[in-house]
Predict the 3D structure of the following.
Amino acid sequence: MYIYTMPSTIVLTQNDIQNSDNNVLEYSLPTGAQFDNHEVCVESVALNYSWPNINGTTLNNDVFQYQWTVGSTTTTHTVTLPEGLYELADINAYLQYVFIINGHYLKDADDNNVFYAEFLVNANTYKFDLVTYPVPTSLPTGFSQPTANSAAGAAAWVGYPTTTFNPNIKILSTNNFSDIIGFAQGFESGLRSGTGTNHTSSSTAAPQIHPNSNVFLSLDNIQNKYAKPSTIIHNLVANTGFGSKIIDRPNEFAFNTLTKGQYNRLRVSILGTDLKPLKILDPDIVIVLLIRNKDDA
């Protein structure tokens, strides 16, 4: 039997990762490791900021829709955001990309693309704004229609409406995209046929564009009576840019009591703010734990 009597350092690396989402690490202990009066803390964590805020599988927040009218026929189009880390400007850029693919834009006299809906940050109100513009029934002076460009994935202009309308942006009630931008599930900006005016809608809740800026570490072998769940041992903050290294070293060690017994492994899980497993793209992870006998403290 192996008994820990002195402080020990446990290092978990990407070699200890147990799944494809890179959020569970297991450290194998000597057979029959006995912990009778021991405690553990996080000494340091190093990993890259590589968990997306848009993900269809784990977050279910990658889809919204818009409606566009040609002649008198209105068609619903789906926007599916690729997995990644987005600011609102990135979401808006992808919406414009879909407009280009579908031929739902015009060009002005300077050959700039003209779009008829956009998401904007309103810093003064701490909200996101959605602005829609009336689509003309004929070509405005100085404008031109885009032509198809298969190499760029761009469609030709698809045709004018019989009556001017604003694109109707639809926030679905079947996913969590609403949380990202702060609009209610089921929200629609409206086609506003025949009005011929710009329309602005503002988010009704604080946008959660980065829902997992706080990350929690959970260790199976502890019982932290002040935490929920009781296995939470540490949290770190993503205070850097996407893809950059996060290095977290607590100023003071917060030791937690290890449950008494024999273990053959220590299992650490990385959780998001919602305490669900966090999908991490980059497996370059190092977690250092310290274990000590309480009598040695």
